[in-house]
Known about the structure:
The chain is an alpha/beta fold. The chain is built from six helices and five strands, in the order βαβαβαβαβαα. Strands 1-2-3 form a three-stranded parallel β-sheet, sandwiched between helices. Strands 4-5 form a two-stranded parallel ribbon.
Amino acid sequence: MRRAVCPGSFDPVTNGHVDVINRAAGLYDELVVAVLVNPGKAGLFSVAERMELIRESVADLPNVRVDSFQGLLVDYCRSQNIPVIVKGLRAVSDFEYELQMAQMNRELAAIETLFVPTAPQVGHLSSSLVKQIAGFGGDVSRLVPKAVDDRLRERAREGRS
């Protein structure tokens, strides 16, 4: 069975993430979307919320499983017997950082990295920009899956109450 992991913070998951997940799911028998648990960083959404939003966003992909991890990604990969990491790339600046990570992951644990360039129509998206736009009341409905848009609108209403 060909298995891979697509890691990230996904706070929140965007259409760019979904693009990469969809394309990677077509290449592997099982794709694990792994949400990083970073206890030192407070996200907009809890890890459990992010996992649920991802599940809702990729519900049509039966070979995608959503999980979370803490610590080194290579340790998670070893514990799950996953030999490949899938990373989406938006720009050359992403590549420079991700290449260093890929080389280190290969050095530490002989884990390969597959880079998937995002589709041009979603290459400009980032979770940070989506949160910023939504925080100012902007319309992000074309940038994120419907479940995420609904949840962002809820958060905005809660903030105004």
